[in-house]
Amino acid sequence: MSLFVTDKTMRKEVLKMISPGTPLRQGLDNVLKAKTGGLIVIANDDSVLDLVDGGFAIHVEYTPSYLYELAKMDGAIVLNSNVDEILYANTQLIPDYSIKTSETGTRHRTAERVAKQTNAIVIAISQRRNVISVYKGDQKYVVEDISKIFTKANQALQTLEKYKSVLDQAIVSLNTLEFNGFVTIYDAVLVLQKVEMVMRVTDIIESYLLELGVEGTLIKMQLEELMGSTREDRELVIKDYGTHIASKDFREELSNLSEDELLDLTNIARILGYTSISENMDMPIKTRGYRILNKIHRLPRSIIENLVNYFDDFQEILAASIEQLDDVEGIGEIRATYIKNGLIKMKQLALLDRHI
Prior knowledge:
57% of the residues lie in helices and 11% in strands. It is of the alpha+beta class. Strands 1, 2, 3, 4, 5, 6, 7 and 8 form an 8-stranded mixed sheet that branches. A hairpin with a 5-residue loop joins strand 4 (76-79) and strand 5 (85-93). It contains 17 helices and 8 strands.
């Protein structure tokens, strides 16, 4: 059995259920402080109830105080799948003893076997070590002290801040190159590499936020401020430079790259669709203009699509006169003037940003 839950969906399910601020976590913390130990099973189907022997069926509404009081008895406590009803208390669980377990204590050995046999979430609270262990299937998660998670989250935020700064520099460079028509495969792929590095750190921080629950509000606010429009920028860069690959497919393939593979920009170029040029990273490419056009305030997406479809590339949009922009469906003279002025202003800002 692995030390931590490796299945992301399963990990989120477990962390959401036991995160600080939830009724279940309040009850678990009360048991932990009392140092009575405990074994709690969340029944996902009848397979759990088939292992119940003895004790008593109470079928009462779940409250943290009830869990605390019932844990003073030696037997296991069985909750329903929604964790809003206590089904059994002071019961014995009789799993298949032929199921292998790496645990040593009786409570934890039972918890691991029940989890493996039923795929239910089983929580064992150690009386001696004062630790909460969560089992599901053949996976295990040990609940860490909040202060340790805070330390890790803050360290991850510092790393994210550095990565985001590098990404911002790459985007400023891409802005200038797009306005001047000098973008190469290297420039576009570099931005996508930096975005992926930012997203991987963000995923780590979000897992910490699940563990912190209501205690992670300030961390969440800092994360949202740092991320800004990063996710949207990623989607638009893929639309600008991707060759017939859906954004979802690109993100999935990119996330499957190892750390070393991600450092090789040719791997990202191949995923983006540049596969028949032996990855000449200096080859010029043209942006469609989605990302820049999205920066024009209150410009509807339908109009952006019409512009991209009407002109061959962004340089043509940039060079178009107000009359030519007016010819695009859905764009009148007033909006054409607004778009033209907006592009001129952004080009000037891009040049200024490049030299700051």
